[in-house]
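Posting this for the archive.
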Amino acid sequence: MSRPVAPVVGLFALALSVGACQAASEGAANSTSGETSAATAPQNAPLTASGAAEPVPLAVDSDGSLISAASVVRIDWVAESGAKLFGTAGGDPAANGLYTYIAFFTEPGGEWVIYELGNIIDYTVLSSSVGRVDLDIHESTLNEATGELGSRHRKVIVSWTPGVDGGPPTGVAVTPAE
């Protein structure tokens, strides 16, 4: 005797969806019990005012620098190098969207010299030393044949030769790594 497959598949789908809902509600319960994940910030009890509120003036951005600064979403200082990696938000975050740079502060002029590393999803600093930072880059990929978006991780070495007398490097190179 053969049985129809549709009811069995339906029951299986129902069981999966109930399990997913249960897992989601348990995750929500855990986050309220003090446990946090990397994606959620810890929550403390709200503060109680202890004085009168003071109004804050609207910032005047006459040269556009505040708008640029507000788009910075990540900064990582690179040890021993006087450099920093930073990323600005832009584009579609589902397909990269973190415009990533390395910047060097110049002496004595006090200006930043900036090199663009790329448009990616995210990066992790694996290690750094004078003239070098190793990164694990997470980026979107596009299968041109199917039009489907995917993602990959790749490791790179960002290297430079420090400038003379505290000056910035004259170039930065990105090398694939394992």
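Confidence is low (pLDDT under 50) at residues 1-38. The CA atoms of residues 47 and 59 lie 26 Å apart.
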